[in-house]
Amino acid sequence: xxxxxxxxxxxxxxxxxxxxxxxxxxxxxxxxxxxxxxxxxxxxxxxxxxxxxxxxxxxxxxxxxxxxxxxxxxxxxxxxxxxxxxxxxxxxxxxxxxxxxxxxxxxxxxxxxxxxxxxxxxxxxxxxxxxxxxxxxxxxxxxxxxxxxxxxxxxxxxxxxxxxxxxxxxxxxxxxxxxxxxxxxxxxxxxxxxxxxxxxxxxxxxxxxxxxxxxxxxxxxxxxxxxxxxxxxxxxxxxxxxxxxxxxxxxxxxxxxxxxxxxxxxxxxxxxxxxxxxxxxxxxxxxxxxxxxxxxxxxxxxxxxxxxxxxxxxxxxxxxxxxxxxxxxxxxxxxxxxxxxxxxxxxxxxxxxxxxxxxxxxxxxxxxxxxxxxxxxxxxxxxxxxx
Length: 387
Known about the structure:
mainly alpha
């Protein structure tokens, strides 16, 4: 299929060749995909050696400095540290966790504040009516067991919530009539779910049906992965890419880049955007999500400090209010050489966007800024200031 827009200049060509080369080498190394979303694939001459990759990055740096001031220059400039760090990540040795957080995502390499995590646990106690002397983790496990969906009902329940989320998201966004989400079951995957956006406003949401799901968690997945989360975000970006002012090179989303906190911040706030924050079940889901991503951030720091595995598991269970089996999965994530730092996108990206959402009380002007353009942390912060 031919590209829908030409690669118009050397800066776009250099960026796209770098993204392709790093993705290809990363997959060959350990299977990690670095270009999960590409609105307009194009075949360009490959960069065959590390010397060519380094030379392409130097060239892109020079071209970025020559760009006129504006969104495109800021976008490219924000990605230069990311590309430099990704070269180290793929080539080895990987940058340490604090450098990954700063260079990949333009985020502060700080742990989640224990005071905020404790406040979230108090919120969970309040929702469950659990006293301080009672076991909170066992109460959460009981709540999850009581709200669990049988394995044969997971997909039908998810389909129903996708329909409700789509209905409510269309009150916020004028989406193309052709947009669709297809739901597919997956098995044996370490991730819980993923949105694979292709083009023409189409996505496939893959849901791991081997996990134990509660119906409130499926509501959250429908909002996060599809409406108004990743699917809607990519659909609005595709429309702007085809019809608006959208850099050609930004058609590619790198898995580790300063757009990540914006993308995951949208997903984590999707239930808030839909006003799905009124029932105890939804409030519980929002509190647990926030608590568990903060816990994951702190687990990553514990791994960085080489703390013993038993301490990691103990902290995961105590802080995140999870059972041993989930704690093992959380610790495995925190040990991953690439994805450990990605947890910071959920923690900090969620806070940045939720603060603006609450400040503007759901004003549609916020969605006009947040969606459509391929914002990085820095460009979105500047756009929020202008609001």
